[in-house]
Amino acid sequence: MLEEMLQKVANGELSPAEAKEKLATFENLGFAKVDHHRKKRQGFPEVIFGEGKEASQIIDISRAMMMKKDNILVTRVSDLKAKEIVKQLPDFQYDHTSRTLCMKNSDEMSLTKGYIAILCAGTSDLPVAEEAAKTAEAYGVEVRRFYDIGVAGIHRLFAHIDEIREATSSVVVAGMEGALPSVVGGLVSHPIIAVPTSVGYGANFQGISALLTMLNSCASGISVVNIDNGFGGAYNAVMIHRIANQTLHK
Predict the structure, then answer these.
(1) Which segments of the chain have a pLDDT < 50?
(2) What fold is seen in the domain 116-248?
(3) Out of 90, 145, 147, 154, which residue is the most buried by the measure of CB atoms under 10 Å away?
């Protein structure tokens, strides 16, 4: 890529200023350094973590990223902050449940085959499950949702198990004792990303009990991300989905 760009400068097809801009690995906004080469290194553009950032900062970072024509995802955004951001950048779509903002500028992965299954044990886990779903959809991957299928009524899981088995990977979200990923892990042949949530009564310890259950699962093929990290679970699932598609296309 570097040699090709230098050749274009030598041929007069590209100005030195344009080449410098294309080669810049990040853009310094003063309060933030926007990583424009994240996609080149990792396959996906940088995601904005909205918690702790002012609306004006998110707006400035988003404007810098818009120049690259990538999809922009902002996580952990309050309703009030989102309202202010959308007023300035109306192309953003806000989802209250997942607390995410998404701006679609590319359909790069929309032609991939298959889908990711997002499983949720209980309705109280929906914010984390929807953060996972919106993350996967921001990367152009089809998502199929299977919600409120926890182990207290396990027949609800079995009603959907055939469709779940056809997914390239599953993100399984659960609070309380966090048993659902272990059950699903014994029923499917694809990778499972388990996401513990902080939902539960006192002895749940804000998700630690669910986390430990998932880490100690006797079912194989289960990986565990941090408590309430729907974004991280979906990111891993999308990477698996992409590899699965590369294998299909060979």
Answers:
(1) 249-250
(2) Rossmann fold (3.40.50)
(3) 147
